[in-house]
Design brief:
By secondary structure, this protein is of the alpha/beta class. The protein folds into two domains: 1-23 and 360-455, Arc Repressor Mutant, subunit A (Orthogonal Bundle), CATH 1.10.10.920; 24-318, tm_1862 like domain (pyruvate-formate lyase- activating enzyme, Alpha-Beta Horseshoe). It has helices at 3-10, 32-40, 75-95, 116-129, 149-157, 172-178, 184-197, 215-226, 259-275, 292-299, 339-347, 361-376, 381-387, 392-398, 402-407, 428-433; strands spanning 13-14, 47-54, 56-57, 69-70, 100-108, 131-142, 162-168, 201-208, 232-237, 279-281, 285-287, 303-305, 308-310, 316-320, 325-328, 331-335, 353-358, 378-380, 411-414, 417-420, 452-453. A nine-stranded mixed β-sheet has the order 10-11-9-8-7-6-5-2-14, with helices on both faces. The chain has a three-stranded antiparallel β-sheet with strand order 15-16-17, with helices on one face. The radius of gyration is 21 Å and the shape is globular. It starts with a helix and ends with a strand. The relative contact order is 0.17.
Amino acid sequence: MSTDAIARYREERLPRYTSYPTAPHFTRAVGAHEYGGWLASLAPDATGSLYIHIPFCRSMCWYCGCHTTITRHDKPIADYIAVLRREIELVAVRIGHRLRVRHIHFGGGTPTIMTTECLAQLMGVLRANFHIEPDCEIAVEIDPTTLTGDMTLALGAAGVTRASLGVQTCDPVVQQAIHRVQSVAQTKAASDGLRTAGVRGVNFDLIYGLPYQTVESCLDTVARCVEMRPDRFAVFGYAHIPSFKKHQRVIDEAALPDGEARFAQAEAIAEALQSAGYRRIGLDHYALPQDEMVHAQKDGVLRRNFQGYTTDACDALIGFGASSIGHLPEGYVQNEVALPAYAARIARGELATAKGYALTQDDRLRAEIIERIMCDFAVDLDAVCARHDARASDVIASAARLDEFEAEGLILRDGARIELLPGSRHMVRSVAAEFDAYLGGAPSDAVRPVHSKAV
């Protein structure tokens, strides 16, 4: 691919495609009434995943793109957990039977900011209202700078099987610039403590494209982290969207690496992790060879959801908490974002659904195409279209830039099969976007789409 083409494509702002259609296209046309019906229609033998959002942190990291609230006190968190427990009960009543659960994910914010008592209460209400499978994966996101010894032991006692540690960078200059100072010793203590407590899987999250970051500092971070041998890495490009996340305005834009530097950082990290024995999973995940995610990719059954790449193949993803998103066979739903609005809805005995999206037949077709491109770097359009009673020729005709991509050496086409060439896989979002029927527009009552750079 030409240098000009790489530069042009990587500057595009595109979705990460953790859903299709993407969240900016959710509208108030889908609300609590529709969600209640969708929950009631889940089959008795359906399987589910649960996402529990804890939107609190002790301090704001300036790079953060999450919905979170800063508090130095425990009472607002405890009050929120009480509302969350009530929401779990309300949803379970709408389902009408104890849904079999194979995955639970605590996200944030900082989930481990809650007290150990609150964690025990949450796990208790989940086990009382759902059938938690014996081999259920229970995952939690962790800020090592605030993780206590008591919480580490509580996570093990609660049956947590996987922990994702936010590392981002080990460079103290970059850490100061993003207001997230975290020593290597803190990260190691958290990782070692979790494993000792019985948490089998440990993941590290890294970010490139941060202020003052360089290829050298990225490689130093990888070297330090590899010594701790986490099972997986997730490596994300920093999305600088200060118009959407106002706290990002504190970051010095002049210190941000340009597109060429971001690309160099991403490639250096990828090469270093693979040299250290990790297998690349899709766009931005890496795992040790024995990891189940590696096997899922090899078998062509890797999936993608709001947590990124996953082995989760459940029939429904149910979101709990303010701003959380769920995905059921009929479509997507999202809870109220503002904490007071969320709490008020639950206090009235209502579902907290603020907006959503009802999937069409064409949406399901394009969602599968995009997921296979994002997971496999290839898609057989004839096979996918046959499953959706559609014609590959019609789908190809709607993808205007496929000829351009082929001419530039980005993809290889063999009939209706499309495959990204190995040296172009970092451009996977650009290829996936060709099958997005909504990119570039949004319904009148939807939030204006804001996406990160393609690389």
